[in-house]
Amino acid sequence: MVIGITGGICCGKTTVLSVLKKLNFKVFNVDDISHDLLNKDEVKEEIKEKISKDVFCDNNIDRKKLASLIFSDEKKRKALNKIMHKRIIACMIDIISKQKEGLTFIEVPLLYELNLEKYFDEIILIYVSRKEQIKRIMKRDCTTEIKAKDMLLSQIDIEEKKKLSKYVIENTHSIESLEKDIKEMVERIKNECN
Ligand SMILES: CC(C)(COP(=O)(O)OP(=O)(O)OC[C@H]1O[C@@H](n2cnc3c(N)ncnc32)[C@H](O)[C@@H]1O)[C@@H](O)C(=O)NCCC(=O)NCCS
Ligand SMILES: Nc1ncnc2c1ncn2[C@@H]1O[C@H](COP(=O)(O)OP(=O)(O)OP(=O)(O)O)[C@@H](O)[C@H]1O
């Protein structure tokens, strides 16, 4: 069974994935796939040509610079999406096709934006309010409220994602209580889907 872990920026998807890994489940993160792709020559060439040479440092992509550019410029973001998404989805489908038994969890930030629901047996949304997302982005990235809000605008609003989701984990308390909620959610899905 393959379960998609999704949510908005800074809702805690990777934190949840780490807990699942600690619990000995098989986990994959689509963000790792995109980081690997950004090291490929063909992808770098396309980014140089269609986005900007200024996001490079010694022929390597500076992800912070690229992020800053795409979250403030919709055209550039669409151009990057066009280069990256088909490749990311192909890698994701390949991983899914290799899962034969047990539970596998895959973190896919833009699962709803890219209409990827059909690839997953179930989907868990990691939720915090928009206000909390902004607070966590500002703290983690040492950035301004305006920039944090720009990042949110690049994704479907978290309340919309909540409406689309049968399984929701609220990540507003301590990591200990998150771990308890994750264990309960896994049991619930196992019971409901057997
Ligand atoms: C912009 C990049 C260079 C930033 O890298 P960085 O290491 O700083 O952040 P990371 O990759 O961990 O992404 C952090 C979060 O940003 C959000 N995000 C990333 N890319 C996008 C995007 N194109 N649109 C909206 N949100 C995005 C996601 O919530 C993601 O979890 C990188 O995310 C990237 O190459 N993005 C394009 C590929 C993509 O769409 N990835 C998400 C696939 S589902
Ligand atoms: N329960 C929590 N309480 C307080 N802070 C938290 C909690 N869970 C996660 N965080 C913090 O919020 C930030 C984002 O967490 P995490 O990286 O897990 O989110 P994400 O959804 O994977 O982010 P991104 O969309 O950027 O990939 C991190 O700085 C993390 O330490």
Task: Compile the SSE list and pairings.
Layout: E1 2-7, H1 13-22, E2 26-29, H2 30-37, H3 41-50, E3 56-57, E4 60-61, H4 63-70, H5 74-97, E5 104-107, E6 122-127, H6 130-141, H7 145-153, H8 158-164, E7 167-170, H9 175-192
This protein binds dephospho coenzyme A and adenosine-5'-triphosphate (ATP).
Adenosine-5'-triphosphate is lined by residues 7, 9-15, 31, 109, 136, 140, 171, 175, 178.
Protein name: Dephospho-CoA kinase
Subcellular location: Cytoplasm
Family: Belongs to the CoaE family.
What would your notes on this structure say?
The chain is of the alpha/beta class. It has helices at 13-22, 30-37, 41-50, 63-70, 74-97, 130-141, 145-153, 158-164, 175-192, and strands spanning 2-7, 26-29, 56-57, 60-61, 104-107, 122-127, 167-170. Strands 2-5-1-6-7 form a 5-stranded parallel beta sheet. The termini are close together. The mean pLDDT is 97. It binds dephospho coenzyme A and adenosine-5'-triphosphate (ATP). The site of dephospho coenzyme A has 20 residues, from α2, α4 and α5.
